[in-house]
């Protein structure tokens, strides 16, 4: 099964699956009970392009905070719950739009039945999250190590519980810190299930290691038509995640309202301090939702030629730059005015 052949699952007003839109997700790193701080973080993530947000639910105080958070944000909210079915019920009553819950981990089937009934009543889907590092003991012993086959076997156990209760509004994830295992597991999942798939590499590390691991694993899967929603996990602030996932989706031609920043690596010909300009423009462009290509080139040798296909470009000279629009040289700009002028041109584009 590929992206457009999966089931449809509604999350608030979003339809996940059965189309080519891959929704961008993130997860708050602030205790949910600190509602005002969580709201501020979510609103910032919304501006950056986050479309679905997840919060942890560790206790009843967290669950009750969801009601306040929901009233002050605009995107669907997912409650992440482990082991305690009563927390799931509390999150549902508080207004969560989706829950992340492995039904085999919350006790008796009667507990699962109560949660499923509440989800049906409120039209709330469930994500089953399979992580390679936390497979059931017997599955781990059977395969000797985390394997794609073992992850699929684990998922089948949880899915069977829900399907016996006539519940099919399910989303699946198969995460690992090993990008090659992620690829193998999601490929097998796409052949095995028709449920929408939530892509992710778990415990991916710092910004650099996460970007590399996620691009390898999730980029491969996206290009194969696998995946309906995606989170790129980065250690630290979730605001680090959104630019990486937007860049990945843009490179896979799955979104087009994201700026494209081109910048040369610099060499001995570079006669101006280019790096701060590139960094400042990268930061600014993360807040821009336009299909625009901006090129910042280091010298006048390759600059004009390399920049001619950009919408707006700078080809640097000695402490200055040539402003180029649609391949036409417009004027020279002093280095200390370059960022200000580029921002103005982008806003008027």
TrEMBL record:
This is 4-hydroxy-3-methylbut-2-en-1-yl diphosphate synthase (flavodoxin). The keyword 4Fe-4S applies. Belongs to the IspG family. [4Fe-4S] cluster binds at residues 264, 267, 299, 306. Keywords: 4Fe-4S, Iron, Iron-sulfur, Isoprene biosynthesis, Metal-binding, Oxidoreductase. It is an enzyme of class 1 (oxidoreductase). One of its GO terms (biological process) is terpenoid biosynthetic process. The gene is ispG. GO terms for molecular function: 4 iron, 4 sulfur cluster binding; 4-hydroxy-3-methylbut-2-en-1-yl diphosphate synthase activity (ferredoxin); 4-hydroxy-3-methylbut-2-enyl-diphosphate synthase activity (flavodoxin); iron ion binding. The keyword Glycoprotein does not apply. Residues 6-244 form the IspG TIM-barrel domain. It catalyses: (2E)-4-hydroxy-3-methylbut-2-enyl diphosphate + oxidized [flavodoxin] + H2O + 2 H(+) = 2-C-methyl-D-erythritol 2,4-cyclic diphosphate + reduced [flavodoxin]. Pathway: Isoprenoid biosynthesis; isopentenyl diphosphate biosynthesis via DXP pathway; isopentenyl diphosphate from 1-deoxy-D-xylulose 5-phosphate: step 5/6. InterPro entries: Dihydropteroate_synth-like_sf, IspG_bac, IspG_bac-typ, IspG_C, IspG_TIM, NO2/SO3_Rdtase_4Fe4S_sf. Residues 260-348 form the IspG C-terminal domain. Converts 2C-methyl-D-erythritol 2,4-cyclodiphosphate (ME-2,4cPP) into 1-hydroxy-2-methyl-2-(E)-butenyl 4-diphosphate. It comes from Faecalitalea cylindroides. Its EC number is 1.17.7.3. HAMAP family: IspG. Its cofactor is [4Fe-4S] cluster. Binds 1 [4Fe-4S] cluster.
């Amino acid at each position: 099964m590929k992206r457009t052949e999966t089931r449809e699952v509604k999350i608030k007003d979003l339809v996940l699956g059965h189309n080519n839109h891959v929704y961008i997700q993130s997860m708050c790193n602030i205790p949910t009970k600190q509602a005002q701080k969580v709201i501020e973080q979510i609103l910032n993530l919304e501006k950056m392009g986050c479309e679905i947000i997840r919060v942890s639910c560790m206790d009843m105080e967290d669950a009750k905070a969801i009601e306040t958070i929901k009233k002050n944000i605009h995107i669907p909210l997912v409650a992440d719950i482990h082991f305690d079915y009563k927390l799931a019920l509390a999150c549902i009553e508080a207004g969560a739009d989706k829950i992340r819950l492995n039904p085999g981990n919350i006790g008796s089937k009667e507990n699962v039945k109560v949660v499923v009934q509440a989800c049906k009543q409120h039209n709330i889907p469930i994500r089953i999250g399979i992580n390679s590092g936390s497979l059931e003991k017997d599955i781990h012993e059977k395969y000797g190590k985390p394997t794609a086959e073992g992850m699929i076997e684990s998922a089948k156990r949880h899915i069977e519980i829900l399907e016996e209760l006539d519940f099919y509004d399910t989303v699946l994830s198969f995460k690992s810190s090993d990008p090659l295992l992620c690829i193998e597991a999601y490929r097998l999942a796409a052949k095995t299930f028709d449920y929408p798939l939530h892509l992710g590499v778990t415990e991916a590390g710092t910004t650099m290691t996460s970007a590399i691991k996620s691009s390898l694993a999730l980029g491969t899967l996206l290009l194969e038509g696998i995946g309906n929603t995606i989170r790129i996990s980065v250690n630290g602030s979730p605001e680090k995640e959104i630019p990486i996932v937007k860049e990945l989706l843009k490179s896979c031609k799955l979104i087009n309202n994201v700026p494209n920043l081109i910048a040369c690596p610099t060499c001995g010909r570079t006669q101006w301090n280019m790096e701060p300009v590139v960094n400042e423009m990268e930061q600014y462009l993360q807040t821009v939702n336009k299909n625009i290509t901006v090129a910042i080139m280091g010298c006048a040798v390759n600059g004009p030629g390399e920049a001619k296909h950009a919408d707006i470009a700078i080809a640097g000279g000695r402490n200055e730059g040539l402003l180029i629009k649609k391949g036409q040289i417009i004027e020279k700009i002093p280095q200390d005015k370059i960022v200000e002028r580029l921002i103005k041109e982008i806003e008027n584009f």
